[in-house]
Structure formats: structure tokens, C-alpha cells
Design brief:
- The chain is an alpha/beta fold.
- It has 2 domains: 2-167, 2-Layer Sandwich (Ribosomal Protein S5, domain 2); 190-422, P-loop containing nucleotide triphosphate hydrolases (Rossmann fold, 3-Layer(aba) Sandwich), CATH 3.40.50.
- 38% of the residues lie in helices and 16% in strands.
- The chain has helices at 38-54, 81-91, 121-131, 139-145, 159-167, 197-209, 223-227, 239-251, 276-280, 290-293, 309-314, 316-321, 364-372, 376-380, 393-396, 405-423, 432-438, 443-455, 460-476, 484-492; strands at residues 2-11, 14-25, 30-34, 63-69, 104-105, 108-109, 115-116, 135-138, 153-156, 213-216, 267-268, 281-282, 287-288, 298-301, 323-327, 332-336, 340-345, 384-387.
- The strands form 6 sheets. Strands 11-14-17-10-18 form a 5-stranded parallel β-sheet.
- The longest helix has 19 residues, at 405-423.
- The protein is elongated and about 85 Å long.
- The chain binds adenosine-5'-diphosphate and magnesium ion.
- Residues 223-224, 302, 344 line the site of magnesium ion.
- Residues 289-388 form the MCM C-terminal AAA(+) ATPase domain.
- It comes from Deinococcus budaensis.
- One of its GO terms (molecular function) is DNA binding.
């Protein structure tokens, strides 16, 4: 007898329908699964067999064939355990006819029959909502999936609980939408950082407009300290942005434990030893990388030149396209990656080049080599470069700063609201026609920018980046027009040769 269960496959952050067909026929006992990669098949078979038996349910001594259709679709991860097990029971008429046709299910089975959370529950719920069907998922995924409007989500702790729900023996309650994620624990305050007015100003501009920022300064000058204060300054995400971010975090399997819409702009700070797959995305079961987890938020790369050369060069694509494409044996997956980069680095290998007190011990060749780790094309994709000089002991022991994060956050939020009201996006997202329309220059300022561009030999990309930053400087000043002082400030931050 043949049974069919509905499930999904994740392609990037999109869930697409997959049908799980299970046939149980008389014959020599066997268990064949087609439509999955080899390794995953054998693992799924063993888990399903053990889980069904350990749940006290009958496992047929017959010829079992499972087909995951469509066959040409890339399917990965253990999410088919539950639909396979349910199909197996339906094929033996242990579930009411049609019980499986009206539900989308997915879940990983432990050998004792309990259900483990899977990645991508939010994405699955979005598809179920489109199809007008309820979702049957591991209990650990219920809260995140229930975020999606228009879908009933049933969370089962085990295979047995899922079966009893479908037979009507013990119906599960639909999961209520989760409470909003709790506000972050006390965030670090900008008032802790003494001096560094230029760096603070550059951070304010970068966060307001979503621009990329590079901090260059000697060890101990407060670069890391400054970057860690970014989360307390970022404006909240719009509802649409929050949903985009939540889908990515769900696809990465990061939400199961917490549930709740990701309402804060993400802040990701991977160590420089992160693998390429960890940074960009990929792996044997493809997962979004840090660049995608930082979508709509900040990616902080401390000790920037210490990242592998390959990692730094692969950053160029997402910095330009705002997405990453990961090529796999059979398909290419694309994840959103519209993050803003904050990077920090020492000016040279020993770290003291330009320091008024400590002498630099690097040879000119060493300095050139160090600066050369960041290629011209990579630097060209950054928007603001600011030097962070080390403070003297006297400066450090001064009275605390009077302006804290609250005031800066207010100015950033205000500028961001101006951008959204004018063009619906942050200034960093303006390109082509939209940039000309929303950042027009009067003849005077235009002549000024052209002269600056010639003097600095700006590329076309560099010119546009200065214009976007100037748009943000004007927005922070509450000015509808971009004036010369706004452009002049933007130009001073334009990254150029590091040596
Ligand atoms: N401007 C500053 N105001 C207050 N403390 C500072 C400042 N600069 C450095 N420090 C102190 O020095 C320590 C090291 O700063 P850090 O941000 O790690 O420097 P960097 O990342 O530039 O090497 C900080 O934990 C802080 O105690
Ligand atoms: Mg540091």
C-alpha cells in the first residue's frame, strides 16, 4: 500500500514542497530510500527503523520503498525522518486515510523516538501558510514557526505524540505565537570610551546609513571597545526586515532554542580563525555563514588582516551584491547578505606605526606587506576609514564622557527615519538611478566633489560611496540638500592606501 506525506526542502532561505512517498509491499524485508544523497539515506533509514520500534509501533517485515520527490531537488538534513516514519505507518493503515494529506511535517528522530528540532522551521511555516495547511513539527521548533501568521503549528515531543495527534487520540494544542524576544541584557555604553571623537563620529555616520567602516589604530587604542558599542546604537528593525532576518536565523538552526522574532539588528563578530564556510556559508549541509547571519546588521571583523586572504577576497562579492552565492555539486544556493562591515586593524605588524610614544619596529617592506593584505578592490568597497590614536595615560584618566549611547542612538534613529521616509531604504542601499534621484547635487557641491574625485583618483565606485556617505552626513544634520561641508566630511573618510 502507498502513502504520501508532505514535507519541504530548503533552498537558501526558501522552502519548497517535497512529497514523501512510502510504499509497503509484500516481499523480502528491505528498506530502500531514493531521492536523498547516499550518506543521508543510510542515516535516515537507521534512525526511522529504531525510532519506530522504540516507540512501540510496528515496523513492517516487508519491502519498503521511500521516494522523496521531486528527485532532482537537492535535499539535505535529517528533516525527513518524521514524514518517512508517518508515511510508513499510514502505508500500514495505522493512520486514518487522508490524515497526512492535510499537514506539512518535518523533524529529526532520535533513536528512542523523541523528536529533535530542525533548521528552517520558520521557512517551512511560511510555505505551509501559503498552502493553507497546518505544520507538524518537533516541539522545539513550535515557537519559532508560530511566528508566521496564518498557520497552525503543532509541536510534538515524539513520534508517538505526532501519531496520536493524527489519529485524534490525543490532539496537540496549536502553539501560540511566541513572546517577543527579551531585550538584550544591559548594553555597553559609549560613555565608557574616552576621547576618540573622530572615531565615534565615523561610527555614528556608519550606523546611521549602513556604511562600511574601517578602524585603524595601535593596540589598546579602544577599537574593539568602540565596535562592541555598536549594538546599543542601532535602530530597531522594521517588521519586514525582522522577518527577513528571522528566516535566515531559522534556516541556520539558531532559533529553536529561543523562538521569537529577531527584532534587534544582528551583530556578529566571528574570530579571525573562522572557516571560509563559517564566514561565507556552505558546508556539507549548506548553512548561511556569518555574512548572512549579519544581514540587516553589523559584521564586526576584529584584527581584519589576520583573516585568511581567501576569506577577505570572498567578502568582495557580498559587499558588492548584498547576497552570497554558494556553489554546490548540484546547485547554487543564494543567501541574503546585506550587512554593514565594521573592521578593525593595527596600522602595521608591530602595531606602533604613527604612535607618538612607541617606535615602530617594522621595516618598510614589512609595512608594505602588512598593508598589502587588504587589496585595493577590497578597500574600494569600504566607505569610511578612521584613525584611532592611542590615548595617553592622562587622557585616559580624565573624567568620564558626558555624551552616552542614548543621545547618539537618538540621532542615528532620527537620520534613519529620514532615509526611510524619503526612499524606503538606508543610504547604503542607494544605487544607480535611485542614488542620483535621492542624493542630487547642486552645481557648486557637484564641482567640489568632482575636484575631490580627481585629486583622490576616485573610482566610479568610490565616487558613489562618497556620495552615499555625504547623504548620511546631511541626514544627520537634518538637511534635505547635500551641501559642501557634508561632502567635505565624507571625503575625509574615503579609504585610501594604508601605508
Ligand atoms: N578611549 C578609551 N577610553 C577608555 N578606555 C580605553 C580607551 N582606549 C583603550 N582603553 C582601555 O584599553 C583597553 C583595550 O582597548 P581595546 O578596545 O581592546 O583596544 P584595541 O582593540 O584598539 O586594541 C580597554 O579595555 C580599555 O580598558
Ligand atoms: Mg582590539
Amino acid at each position: 500500500m502507498l502513502a504520501r506525506a508532505r514535507s519541504v526542502a530548503l533552498i537558501g532561505v526558501d522552502a519548497v514542497p517535497v512529497e514523501v512517498e512510502v510504499d509497503v509491499s509484500p516481499g523480502l524485508p528491505s528498506f530502500m530510500v531514493v531521492g536523498l544523497p547516499d550518506q543521508a539515506v543510510s542515516e535516515a533509514r537507521e534512525r526511522v527503523r529504531a525510532a519506530v520500534r522504540n516507540a512501540g509501533l510496528p515496523f513492517p517485515a516487508a519491502r519498503i520503498t521511500v521516494n522523496l520527490a521531486p528527485a532532482d531537488l537537492r535535499k539535505e538534513g535529517p528533516l525527513y525522518d518524521l514524514p518517512i516514519a508517518l508515511g510508513l505507518l499510514a502505508a500500514q493503515e495505522l493512520l486514518p486515510a487522508g490524515a497526512l494529506a492535510g499537514v506539512v511535517s518535518a523533524g529529526e528522530l532520535a533513536l528512542d523516538g523523541t523528536l529533535r528540532p530542525i533548521a528552517g522551521a520558520v521557512n517551512l511555516a511560511l510555505l505551509a501558510a501559503q498552502e493553507g495547511l497546518p505544520a507538524l513539527l518537533p516541539e522545539g521548533n513550535a515557537a519559532e514557526a508560530a511566528l508566521i501568521d496564518g498557520v497552525s503549528v503543532y509541536g510534538a515531543v515524539s513520534l508517538l505524540a505526532a501519531v496520536r495527534h493524527l489519529t485524534g487520540e490525543v490532539r496537540l494544542e496549536a502553539a501560540p505565537p511566541p513572546e517577543p524576544a527579551p531585550a538584550e541584557a544591559a548594553l555597553l555604553d559609549l560613555a565608557d570610551l574616552k576621547g576618540q571623537t573622530a572615531a565615534k563620529r565615523a561610527l555614528e555616520i556608519a550606523l546611521a546609513g549602513g556604511h562600511n567602516l574601517l578602524l585603524v589604530g595601535s593596540p589598546g587604542s579602544g577599537k574593539t571597545m568602540l565596535a562592541r558599542r555598536a549594538p546599543g546604537l542601532l535602530p530597531p528593525l522594521t517588521r519586514a526586515e525582522a522577518l527577513e532576518v528571522t528566516r535566515i536565523h531559522s534556516a541556520a538552526g539558531l532559533l529553536a532554542a529561543r523562538g521569537g522574532l529577531v527584532g534587534h539588528a544582528p551583530y556578529r563578530a566571528p574570530h579571525h580563525t573562522v572557516s571560509d564556510a563559517g564566514l561565507i556559508g556552505g558546508g556539507s549541509v549548506p548553512k548561511p555563514g556569518e555574512v548572512s547571519l549579519a544581514h540587516r546588521g553589523v559584521l564586526f571583523l576584529d584584527e581584519f588582516p589576520e583573516f585568511s586572504r581567501k576569506a577577505l577576497e570572498t567578502l568582495r562579492q557580498p559587499l558588492e551584491d548584498r547576497t552570497v552565492s554558494i556553489s554546490r555539486a548540484r546547485a547554487t544556493v543564494t543567501y541574503p547578505a546585506n550587512f554593514q562591515l565594521i573592521a578593525a586593524m593595527n596600522p602595521c605588524k608591530c602595531g606602533h606605526h604613527g604612535d607618538p610614544e612607541k617606535a615602530c619596529t617594522c621595516t618598510p617592506a614589512e609595512r608594505t606587506r602588512y598593508a598589502g593584505r587588504l587589496s585595493g578592490p577590497l578597500l574600494d568597497r569600504l566607505d569610511l576609514l578612521v584613525r584611532v590614536p592611542r590615548l595617553t595615560v592622562e587622557e585616559l584618566s580624565r573624567a568620564p564622557e558626558t555624551e552616552g549611547s542614548a543621545a547618539v542612538r537618538e540621532r542615528i534613529a532620527h537620520a534613519r527615519r529620514r532615509m526611510l521616509a524619503r526612499q524606503g531604504t538606508r543610504n547604503s542601499d542607494l544605487a544607480g538611478q535611485a542614488l542620483r534621484r535621492h542624493a542630487p547635487l547642486a552645481p557648486g557641491p557637484e564641482a567640489f566633489l568632482r575636484a575631490a574625485a580627481r585629486q583622490l583618483s576616485l573610482t566610479g565606485r568610490g565616487y558613489d560611496r562618497v556620495l552615499r556617505v555625504a547623504r548620511t552626513v546631511a541626514d544627520l544634520a537634518g538637511s534635505p540638500e547635500i551641501r559642501e561641508p557634508h561632502l567635505a566630511e565624507a571625503v575625509t573618510y574615503r579609504p585610501r592606501e594604508l601605508t
